[in-house]
Amino acid sequence: MGKKYESSWTPYLIIGFTTILVFVIIGFLAFKNSNPSLSPSLKTNREIALTCTTDMATEFHIHSILKIVINGENQAIPANIGVSPNCMMSLHTHDDNGTIHVESPEKRDFT
User: pTM of the full predicted structure?
Assistant: First the structure.
């Protein structure tokens, strides 16, 4: 009799467990989409690049070298592009050696 009792409850347990699992997954997805730190921003690359940033917000930090040559002549990349007294944008320079600092709140392919 013990086996008959267990087997009669098995389908209900499977359905109950599956239902709970579906609700947990739906809840997680809803939380993930409502929490900006867990889902990608809806901002464009340009909007991200022109956003004032702080060290605390930096999730992606690289240095790229930009070299512009016109008619065989190297062109200087100005210092302090994207830097003002109260704002440093996600993409900026500090000096004129061509180093572009990318300090973005999210990893992106900036062009």
Answer: 0.58
